[in-house]
C-alpha cells in the first residue's frame, strides 16, 4: 500500500513540477506618501453602492453580466503568445526540482526531505503525451486531428481557442491558462508534442510545413 501511495504522489509531482514557481516574490518598494485604509469606510461605500443598484433594479443585471462574462472567459481564456514556426526543433527539459519542505504521503511515508533535488522520472514513467495547440488555427487543428492517434495516451492542451468547440472534436480539453505549463517547458511555438524521454521532458515543436 505504501509503495502504491508513494508512486501516486511521485506521478502527481512529476506533472506539477511544471507548476513550480519560477522564483520568489521580491519587495520592490513603493513611491509617494501612503495613507491608512479605513476598512469601515470602504465597506460602507460598497454596501451603499450595492443598495443603490438593488433599489434601481440594476443589481440583477450586473450579476447576470458578471456571470456571462465569467462563462465566456472560462470557455475562451486569453490566448497565449505562441506562434507557429517554419523551423521545427526538438529539445529536452529536466523536470527535477529542489523541494522547499519535507514531502510526505498521507500514510506518513517520507518521499523527500527539504532541500532534496528530486527528479520524479527516476521513479515513475509519465505515460501521457501532451499536445499543445491553438484551436483558432485551422492548420493546427488539422495537424492534431491527423496525428493524435499516433500516440497511445494523449492530453490535449489549448493555448488559444474555444474550449467547448475543441472538446467537441477531441473530447476532454485543458487550457494552459496564463501559460503556466508552456513557460515551464520553454515552449515558443505550437503545435508542440511533449512526452517523457528518459529522465527528461522531450519537447517537439512542429513546423507549419510538417505533414
TrEMBL record:
Keywords from the UniProt entry: Signal
Range of residues in the leader sequence: 1-25
UniProt KW Signal keyword: yes
Protein name as annotated: Protein TraW
